[in-house]
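Handout, section B. The chain below has 975 residues.
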Amino acid sequence: MTDETLAQRLELPRPDVTAEEAGDILQSRYGLSGQLSELGSQQDRNYRVDTGDQTYVLKICHMIYETIELEAQNAAIRHLAGIEGAPRVPRVVASTDGQDIVAVVVRDQTYQVRLLEYLEGEGLTKPSYLPGHSVAALGALCANLARSLADFDHPGLDRNLQWDLRRAGPVAVQLLSAITDGAARDRIAKNMVAAVRRVQPFAPALRLQAVHHDVTGDNVVSRRDEKGRLIPDGVIDFGDIIRGWLVGDLAVTCASLLHQADGDPFFVLPAVKAYHEVYPLKEEELRALWPLVVARAVILVASSEQQISIDPENEYVRANLVLEQRIFDTAIAVPFDLMETAILKTAGIELPTVATEHWHPLLPDLDLQNMLYVDLGVESQHFAAGNWGQGDMDWRLLARAASEADAAATRYGEYRLSRARLLSARPSATYALHADICLAAGSAIAAPFSGRISWQNHHLVLEGADIGLHLDGLDPSVEDGAELESGQAIGVVSGEQGSLGGLRVQLSTLKGAEPPLFCTPAEVFAWSALCPSPAALLGKGVEAPKPVDAEILAVRTAHFAAAQKHYYEIPPRIERGWKEYMFDVEGRAYLDMVNNVTILGHGHPRLADAVGEQWLRLNTNSRFHYAAVADLSERLAALAPEGLDTVFLVNSGSEANDLALRLAWAHTGARNMLSLLEAYHGWSVASDAVSTSIADNPQALTTRPDWVHPVAAPNTYRGEFRGPDSTGDYLQSVLAALELIDASGERLAGFIAEPVYGNAGGIALPHGYLAAVYGQVRARGGVCIADEVQVGYGRLGHHFWGFEEQQVVPDIITVAKGMGNGHPLGAVITTRAIADSLEKEGYFFSSAGGSPVSSVVGITVLDIMADEALQQNAREIGDRLKGRLVTLMDHHPLIGAVHGMGLYLGVEFVRDRETLEPASEETAAICTRLLELGVIMQPTGDHLNVLKIKPPLCLAAESADFFADMLEKVLSEGW
């Protein structure tokens, strides 16, 4: 085919064939009829045909495309259909007279027509977000397809096609004239020239074979795995099949993924890794890959601009252009060298390092043994109470250290806490690719290796044969363009005599560009290869220790009992908290939306000071006499309803509920307890016995002791009876259990329940439910226990205690978690008469429950809650957040309900709002996706389909909005 023919093809609109005319072709040539709907295409006219029994695709093509080219497509499909393990492909359907390709005339224009089976499945283009697993699966599919085509041959493969990346340069020249914006045209042309130049040295080594050359999200079909992720397993549209570069096939696939990459080119690396594992590429092919991705992006944009100029009503092309422009912008967002390095390392190819053993000292007058290296990482002792957020904190700490030594330096390879951005959907660039040195102004600086000087905008580069030295903060003694030998003077550290100056040092092999000072954790493996450690210049101590997260997790797994689970399959290693934020060791800031333990927020300095002061003064057990235990007991009694004036102090909620049950037994002399189904009350023998949540204990319903009598969960959303006025119906379950106890001749000890259904996500109990049940229990001499461990203590905002919402007063209140803000502290509050009943069994003692430190913690928490108006904040921010979440229901049917009040909320996900089928797998995947976006969230409920929203009560309005925004993003884009 000649270049003239190619030029003619570039100017073709789609065949002008209406749906009615296509239906006539279908009936006359294939004997079929059905409903036709148009499918998008660049230059063909395609119709989906639904006959009722079968679904097909009718493909109508211009005659300028030779029949042998179409025959090659059909032959490739049949070739793949005969290979076990190859991707699914559509079946070619012959006409009534046995032809695979039919020539038809429509309004005096001749076209070629084919009919293919419609391959069922979902495409990958529509979702705005693809998980890494899906990206890798697309790479593996592309490799499997290419491997299956390796021995396929056909004369129709040798085509002069605009999409052939071997011809990308000349094709781009022909297409660029369609771009009317001169600046945009020049930008595209410049990047195409750069891409072609990088490919040229590798071109002779690039393998040729039959390749599909269009394995994109539009041209694959997928199934969903058990976690709801799209896994492509079929390929359609062989219209671009050619004999071309093997690596070009992967380049097309990688480029197609970039519109879903959110601006991050590294997004495609799982596809590269998976492809290489299935069908290994040569090093030259790997080096050529990214320039070919850029070339593909250029051709995509230019072709669409050209096609729109010819066929302005082609909405398929117009919609794709938006995505293609995003592909192009992402492809050129980073240097070629970076992507080449990332691709090579992803494929397991080790890159050579720069030899430094013969380098001359950079600071010849400085003894590196006297250098102090300042820890600015997440675990640094220099940081507290958010002081790392002060803009100049890193420099202040560096200068302070330098004043105590000859010089001080920051550390290369350190994840800087000061760089952690709060409320960010993306990880921050926290990894330092440089080091800053604070030392005496006027200190000499020498060239460690020979090279050429570049001096621009106060930034000096010594460009050596294989690496560059970047310096800031010096007064140079050499001119721009000077050639230096190793050891020759470069200049001195800037600053007045007798003062301290700052020198920034960075090494880089990146040519023609200034490297970044920091990179994100995901980019470290590539950027650290391009910007190696300056240890050869500044001493080994300049290298920060590498995080050993995997090793620590392995130790935890080996020695920490497996029943003590951790959040997430691959958990981030959290080592710092502040207010409603948590930070992992790589400086990723997370919004903590699950931590009801830290009611005040993380790292509260006032609480830390109070604990430290008390610990230095005294800590012992509560059998000694000291003021704090009396003060805390008095404060707790004052918070409870009148008559509940006696306090036990314990270590946890489990211990508090265990003790409450013992008090019920001791006071009544009976053993039988009523509890609710789907409830959780703790891990001790007694508190676990009354816990019936199968999410916490899958055997809960079959292992309860005979003294436990579970009654129907009054779940007003998904229970047997629905709505707030269902008390009468649910009371029947309680009465039935009581009648069985009465009939046995035994007595009732009591009833335990959360006054708000916390374990189900904060569902309110039916109106008057507790009043009705409490009345029946007390009529039989039993006591009523309100488990406020999760829902009480101001968290509900509108009430301090959950039982206030039901307008009842219990006989025993249990509380823990938030009352210690993470310190092990719990309490049981009851009447003097009930408390005194325990003395029949002897005295009670909890070693740390009421210790001086624990008591001071409890007092200080209450003081801070009052001084910072945290219950009011829970009410105001909780109402704001719930309003945002309820609004999401209008657009996302996966949300079945929003439960709770204040800052104890639950978002329940269902697959059907009528059947309420729990969306358990979706909920788990949503939590994982939220973690990627910087939000810590976990599921709850017996079906694990409820987001349990219980953040620190200091949650700010912007944090609540960020959570709602990120949840909306996940529900809109997918997971």
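Note. The chain has a mean pLDDT of 95. Compare this with the example in section A.
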